[in-house]
């Protein structure tokens, strides 16, 4: 255990040293603000749609906010994780690590861990900056952000395992990106039906479902608990898969 | 058909298939067709220009991915030693990628909206929008050492290219938005789905202004490619 912590500290120190060299972290921090900034227009869009098309967007606010702030950061940071892993494989960094005393899964686990932390922070920051959620909803969003944080490596690992290289990874990302923004939104239209639970097989369902309850009221904890367990289990399984695939 | 350009086009189509772009596109088309069934009919027309614009934005990632990959695998340096000129290389990429984008849009629109779309502004809007997105990716990608470092700056480029939505939608109309080259293609898509009616000079602007940009960006692409890809090989 002690040595694993040591390895992780080494990776972390190395990352911090390179922050100055690459603009990555700065732009990662910008991400949530871009998502949040899009939501500053939500009240005027709502008014505009009501005037122009006589359509009331207010019942859809929780779905719109969740798409931008709860799904956006894990998708973006998951894609960054996948591209980093594929890049490092292509540049043989991962092969270099194999001749060091670091156990094979430690590096991937470290990448997943830092992605979870960054995504959790991004989700909370973007919700806070969006101006669309009250203090109570923001408080309830803490565990939701962690669920969304776990979603990031799930998406990133799937992208990195399905693509054999960067460019196939991008093709996979295109499909996953659209699927993540659309499929978990379908249950929003059938919330009264027990069939909505069937969407629980798709990992992004849990954080958005919990967010709708936090925003509009309703059952909340079962979705948070389900999401944390399911996504954490998937991270564990996919960690093995991706470590095997990237060798 | 023989000659350098047709050969380059054939090669790019083959690469697209090998990269998995065709499978990805087939999945994406099926997803769009399914998801758009959920959009209420009166909102479908107003929503289509935005959805197509969002979908076409991904072409920027595809072309950037191709640039990074071909640089990393060094196939691009092999091409430099062949009779293929830069204009053939770029034309083949733009042609094959816009063909892919156009086919995607045609299938999705026919399946969900029907044949009521106005053909000329639709095709012109999709093609001009795609070319702008492709060139934005092609020009910015070589400036970064790896795709993961390019990914996030690219979202800023994307935000700029999407800015005309704010004006077009009627939220905050401002003449400054018409300086962004994607404004014209967005208006063409609006006309295609009968959301806006364009007057004579608006047609000229919506087609001519992005076309000027595309010509300028092609020249810039040559410069960037030569400086950051071709000559960077010597620095290794």
Present the secondary structure layout:
The complex is a heterodimer of chains A (247) and B (236).
Chain A: H1 2-19, H2 24-39, H3 42-53, H4 61-90, H5 93-98, H6 104-130, H7 135-162, H8 166-182, H9 205-216, H10 221-245
Chain B: H1 4-19, H2 21-36, H3 41-56, H4 59-72, H5 75-80, H6 86-112, H7 119-140, H8 147-162, H9 164-168, H10 183-192, H11 200-230
Protein name (chain A): Fluoroquinolone transport system permease protein
Keywords (chain A): Membrane, Transmembrane, Transmembrane helix
Transmembrane segments (chain A): 23-43, 63-86, 107-129, 135-159, 171-191, 220-242
Characterization of the model:
Chain A: The chain crosses the membrane at residues 23-43, 63-86, 107-129, 135-159, 171-191, 220-242. Chain A: Keywords: Membrane, Transmembrane, Transmembrane helix. Chain A: This is Fluoroquinolone transport system permease protein. Chain A is mainly alpha-helical. Chain A has one domain. Helices cover 77% and strands 0% of the residues of chain A. Chain A has helices at residues 2-19, 24-39, 42-53, 61-90, 93-98, 104-130, 135-162, 166-182, 205-216, 221-245. In chain A, helix 2 packs parallel to helix 6 (104-130) and helix 4 (61-90) packs antiparallel against helix 6 (104-130). The longest helix of chain A has 30 residues, at 61-90. With 236 residues, chain B is mostly helical. Chain B contains 11 helices and no strands. Chain B has helices spanning 4-19, 21-36, 41-56, 59-72, 75-80, 86-112, 119-140, 147-162, 164-168, 183-192, 200-230. In chain B, helix 3 packs antiparallel against helix 10 (183-192). The longest helix of chain B is centred in the last third of the chain and has 31 residues, at 200-230.
